[in-house]
């Protein structure tokens, strides 16, 4: 207890501020890796409707590795097609262009739309399944101290945060500051809009006056996932750099009553009054993005948000959809925002405090990427902090977070800078509209790999080995590029015969995966190569002792931070589980042999997605195979020949703490 | 309150005895159709491990129509392959034959294995989502009276059951009568084995001595899903006819430690010591069926069950797997049973009381069908009782339950009579073993359509219209045969562009589906036919008033017990939602147009299962289409041309109560 009578003090390894999709994704990693962590959120209740909804392929692949994608697929709305409407020669809107993603077959999962609240629920359920971590709601941080002197000591708690528990009334104010009446059709849309001021200071002030319960928390790491108004970022004096445009947009989730034929298809509609973006979603809802007002250039006066109402948005949509009718009776949620692109120059302070998601990059929501980028930021920093906090990985890996994610945040802003103006440039004459919809398609195509998450562009680092000599593409596995995602494929289990996607096999459980692409074991020479590799991995050669005992365990979870997985290319019926070296299919005295570890790239004939073409997808020779290390976040870390065990061990030594070693210093 | 001080009296429409898979499936229908129902179970807790595990394609299709299949797929183990081992020429066991189902592409869902306890949980969750029905556990029925005089009055409650609430101790005794010690490795396996006596009377006796709380329940309908020892069946004096063989089998769920290569593949292993059945399942478990003893022929003495132990089963498995090693440390569950085939001559009493599942048919569990047959019994009787109790359907449909399901139960026993002896005939010489494994494959193939649920053989009735002139196959839709399942296909939504399986579209919500296979709407004549049909259905012709208002609603759920669904065959991009008649895509003033009702049989190019071949699967002309009525349980009721509306309405009139009409008498 300190100066205030009702202040206690406690310690945690990781403190997470904010329990939106980004904060929850961070907490997921702590739960999976058994790290002591706390997560707070100022709001008293979870988000139930509205907010973000776009889910890109890569995000869904990560969900599958977390074991929650089946729930998303069950409820979500797939968008694989887009239609761009603009006036035809007679001035009536027509489908000027349609678009189906060329990338649609590059992932087994299609882009989807599902409300943020459901996503949060699924991640929460997973956190609960793996740990005792609970979101502490209605809790706000009041002060942050960071003692850089203690940085070198991994056992120290250099971060001190004072937490304050809000009253129920205060917490519900944080949930929805402007809506006192619950009888309105839709919640007041300007909650969490960037048009409203931040209420954090106000909440602290009220709570102080009430002499609320406070707590001093000492933490080793702090991760700020507290949104565009990020309190954490402000405490660190990290600015958001960039600019706002002078356009105000409305967003509304409604059940439409319209004879416009493509209201249930992703697309845009343009006429002389402007452009709207149409996004169909679950439960008959359609989200519309609508330009509502241009702020007078040069004014410093705060925009008068009271002029934006669902009624005003309805009128604007009608103008743009003319001559089609448009109305709604059910409005589930709405908000308004000012378009702008801003980014923080750094995502970390001393690699002890990290910022993720909207806290470090804001943009217009129209590209359907915000929630994806935010969760992928946290997915990236989460496992790194978890493994370092657990004593499994060297703290040096923490310095890869900023370069890996900052570059992508810049691409996100770049995409938005190309995309948003297409909605506000008012060139709507019939003669120009085909050009405009063409431009929309061109911009979409330009950024598609990035937006869907099919390319990550992670640069060389301790976690990403790049081939020597500067070649971008490893000769042994032309499509397995370090720093990029491991392209999913459906494989057949050797012992069982069933088929599974790689992203579900490569569970996000904190382990690095050493993937042995064993090639065609029917060939004598290749079988020898695989057995020689097994010999080396088991410690009878280059590696001194078994690779599986070389590194510190993940305490309470796994004896080794490595998981070996073998994928061969011979026909399934011509191979046997016991053909493979012991270390690739180890025997546990209680759990028996590890039948889940040997896989086959062969088509069983009854699963159209298990087509026996994985080696081709990966650009790997079917006879000779390859050796691959995949990071815990399913990005490729290292690629080589089956003989390159020494080089692989050097890569792993640079990342993982040796077993029995004292903790390294920062 | 009556003779006992603590007896109350209440009314319910439907009382279900037993909350295993069969009872829960019945309760599901009451939940979906908003019928007042109660479900009791003598056991104090839900089944957690062991018991049934086999799930056939058709069961999974029904799960999908209930909205729970994604959870089963996430956890279950797919079996698409089987291996039959027997001694080779040198006496060492080899894979004599392997087998992949020829039917595997006839359903999008493959046969699976998953523990009964998980299935029960999924159905329970669905019941909870749709109703307030709760399983009343630790409740037993003590007496049953049925007043046949009241049969003709649908508002009467001719059934009187006295319920008794067990104490916690009694209820846990019911859960596991022989296991007092919770420290054993596996629960005592003889609970619910057919080798143990029924404990129902004993529980009533104990409970009476305690002066337990009792309740008189008056019900309109009673459904007994209370297993092989069915108390309900005994009260009705309905026998189980058939015989037991003299073979005792053990069943054990273990995590195996063995170098037998196919321990994770479905299959059999035979040698001179006997035959075992190997069934891999979720969580590394393998189930083994093992012959343990032959009862002396002609003895009436009860089999000495104390001689069967996991240790004895382990020894038997070792004998049969020789020279492969075999051991286990984890035994999750085990039991033993005496092989026999028995069936009740009738499944109903006065069409007010029904029996389903093991209550009316018992067989050896080795065909992996028991849970499927039991759930499908309930799925069949459940919707019929629910719709009659809700005043939606004529009571005459209740008389279709016995003939539809009794015939299949006989086939089940026939299958078992062919299959079980293959495990006990001891012809294991090397020269004969290939013949034996060949016979196993032949028997499997012979019963495959039936076992997987791909054929139902439901005969002509008020619910199944058979073509006139005695042809089995309707000319207009050669593969849509009344009385059979509607073969699943993946379709593209016209308004949205997304792809969905028909079994998920045809939700098990109590409604009949009128499926308009609209053919190729690009052809002028065909478009005219479809619009003429729309005209008729809307009540401007043969039907007097709109078909959608012709029948009594499902109270509190749907305004009409019919759901119209249109599937056309033109290319998706060449059709529009608004091309179709109003009645096929109705407008709701709040919910807008019914975008979910118009579907297209076209391949989008990005979904390998949506291949644009549904019309071919159904044997329907792509230009001319057809008209189909599908029952609430996804079986086909009626098939005709688009012009045969009068005939279709006669079919529906025979099943459904006209709107505004007084309730018909029995």
Automatic annotation (TrEMBL), chains A, B:
All copies of domain FAD-binding, residue ranges: 12-414
Record bears the keyword Zinc-finger: no
Keywords: FAD, Flavoprotein, Oxidoreductase
One GO molecular-function entry: oxidoreductase activity, acting on paired donors, with incorporation or reduction of molecular oxygen, NAD(P)H as one donor, and incorporation of one atom of oxygen
Flavoprotein as UniProt keyword: yes
Occurrences of domain Phenol hydroxylase-like C-terminal dimerisation (ranges): 458-658
Xref: PANTHER family: 2-MONOOXYGENASE, PUTATIVE (AFU_ORTHOLOGUE AFUA_1G13660)-RELATED (PTHR43004:SF20), TRK SYSTEM POTASSIUM UPTAKE PROTEIN (PTHR43004)
Annotated family: Belongs to the PheA/TfdB FAD monooxygenase family.
Record's protein name: Phenol 2-monooxygenase
Source organism per UniProt: Penicillium alfredii
């Amino acid at each position: 207890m300190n100066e205030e009578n009702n202040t206690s003090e406690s310690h945690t390894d990781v403190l997470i501020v904010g329990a939106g999709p980004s904060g929850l994704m961070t907490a997921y990693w702590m739960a999976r890796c058994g790290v002591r962590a706390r997560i707070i959120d100022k709001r008293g209740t979870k988000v139930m409707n509205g907010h973000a909804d776009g889910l890109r392929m890569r995000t869904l692949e990560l969900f599958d590795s977390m074991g929650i994608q089946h729930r998303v697929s069950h409820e979500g709305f797939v968008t694989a097609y887009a239609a761009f409407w603009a006036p035809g020669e007679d001035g009536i809107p027509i489908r000027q262009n349609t678009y189906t993603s060329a990338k649609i077959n590059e992932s087994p999962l299609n882009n989807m739309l599902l409300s943020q609240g459901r996503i949060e629920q699924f991640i929460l359920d997973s956190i609960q399944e793996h740990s005792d971590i609970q979101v502490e709601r209605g809790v706000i941080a009041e002060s942050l101290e960071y003692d850089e002197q203690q940085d070198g000591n991994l056992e120290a708690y250099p971060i001190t945060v004072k937490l304050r528990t809000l009253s129920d009334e205060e917490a519900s104010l944080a949930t929805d500051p402007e809506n006192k009446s619950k009888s309105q059709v839709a919640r007041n849309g300007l909650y969490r809009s960037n048009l409203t001021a931040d209420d954090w200071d106000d909440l602290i002030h009220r709570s102080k006056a009430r002499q609320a319960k406070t707590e001093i928390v000492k933490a080793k790491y702090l991760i700020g996932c507290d949104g565009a108004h990020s309190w954490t970022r402000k405490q660190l004096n990290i600015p958001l750099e960039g600019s706002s445009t002078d356009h105000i947009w409305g967003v509304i989730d409604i059940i439409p009553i319209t004879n416009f034929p493509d209201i249930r298809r992703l697309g845009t509609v343009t006429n002389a009054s402007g452009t709207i973006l149409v996004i169909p979603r679950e439960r008959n809802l359609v989200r519309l993005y609508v330009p509502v007002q241009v702020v007078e250039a040069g004014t410093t006066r705060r925009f008068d948000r009271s002029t934006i109402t669902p009624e005003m948005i309805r009128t604007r949509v009608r103008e743009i959809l003319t001559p089609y009718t448009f109305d709604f009776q059910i409005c589930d949620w709405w908000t308004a925002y000012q378009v702008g692109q801003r980014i923080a120059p750094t995502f970390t302070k001393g690699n002890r405090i990290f910022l993720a998601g909207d806290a470090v990059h804001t943009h217009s929501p129209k590209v359907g990427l915000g929630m994806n980028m935010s969760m992928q930021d946290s997915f990236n920093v989460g496992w790194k902090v978890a493994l370092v906090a657990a004593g499994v990985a060297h703290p040096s890996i923490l310095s890869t977070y900023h370069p890996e994610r900052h570059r992508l945040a810049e691409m996100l802003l770049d995409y938005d800078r190309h995309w948003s103006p297409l909605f506000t440039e008012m060139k709507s004459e019939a003669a120009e509209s085909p050009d405009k919809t063409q431009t929309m398609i061109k911009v979409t195509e330009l950024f598609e790999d990035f937006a869907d998450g099919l390319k990550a562009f992670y640069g060389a680092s301790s976690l990403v080995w790049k081939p020597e000599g500067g070649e971008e593409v490893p000769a042994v596995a032309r499509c397995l590029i370090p720093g990029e995602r491991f392209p999913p494929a459906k494989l057949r289990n050797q012992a069982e015969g069933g088929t599974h996607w790689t992203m579900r096999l490569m569970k996000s459980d904190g382990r690095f995966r050493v993937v042995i692409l064993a090639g065609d074991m029917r060939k004598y020479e290749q079988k020898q190569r695989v057995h020689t590799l097994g010999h080396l991995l088991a410690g009878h050669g280059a590696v001194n002792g078994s690779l599986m005992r070389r590194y510190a365990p993940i305490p309470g979870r796994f004896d080794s931070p490595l998981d070996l997985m073998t994928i061969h290319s011979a026909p399934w019926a011509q191979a046997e589980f016991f053909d493979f070296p012991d270390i690739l299919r180890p025997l546990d005295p209680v759990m028996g042999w590890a039948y889940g570890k040997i896989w086959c790239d062969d088509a069983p004939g009854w699963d159209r997605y298990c087509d026996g073409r994985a080696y081709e997808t990966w650009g790997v020779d079917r006879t000779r195979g390859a050796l691959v290390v995949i990071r815990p976040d399913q990005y490729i870390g290292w690629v080589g020949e089956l003989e390159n065990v020494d080089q692989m061990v050097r890569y792993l030594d640079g990342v993982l703490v040796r077993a029995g070693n004292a903790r390294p210093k920062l």
